[in-house]
Amino acid sequence: MLPAAVFAEEEQTAEPPAPSPWSATVELYGFAPLRTTGSTTVRGLTADVDLDLEQVLRPLTMAAYVRGSVEYKRLGLLTDLSYVSVRGEDAVTSPAGSRRLSAKLNNIQGIYDVALRYRFGDREQAVAKAGSFSVIPYAGVRFVDMRYDLRAQFDGPLLSLARSRSFGGTVTQPLLGTQASVFLSPRLRLFARGDVGGFGVNNSDDYSANAQVGLGYAVGNNTQLNLSWRYLHLGGTNDQSPENAYDINQNGVEMGVKFFF
Question: Does CATH place domain 20-90+101-260 in 1.10.3720.10?
Fold first, then answer.
């Protein structure tokens, strides 16, 4: 029988199991644009847009946001999916009440990213030593689904008239971007992201862009709370006459919960 000291020595010299080459992340987040500016053009008629957060949230009917990534060693895939639906309605009635003009607008804004990524630096995780960093460039495609449905109706004593107009659709854009992070302490990290899509492939006005910088704090060993400032630009046109187009800029706060696997 081997003495107990031999077993103790074997336990001390045993190497820990190698970490899995696979890793993944999932982030559920929300984007609150404090200011939305730009313009919308329908059949050659342009209306300027300048909205605060309350004006954006009031007609909101649905919003969903999720990001994810999967990695084998250093090579991986990422996705970023967002969907927003807005419905607005307004009406004007003559002083005598005999005439009424009403309008309804439905807008769907979907942004769906799929890209290949490569990591430089340390593996993504919720907790790490101060100074740990990662830089992850990525390239892929962005699908921008922007749709407008406008219905106007006039009701008068002798005539009622309704008109509907729709424009928009899904545009595929090449996408290039980079995300990076560095740990300021074992649980606190600084992160940033920037990307551009479009590059004039469809037309000169068809492009999109993101810029984001924020802080993440680990809660437990595999969960992180994120708070950041984000800028988003979306632009597109049918490149025809009469023109249908949009040019939207949003600045605001993004909050998320990120899980590491």
Answer: no
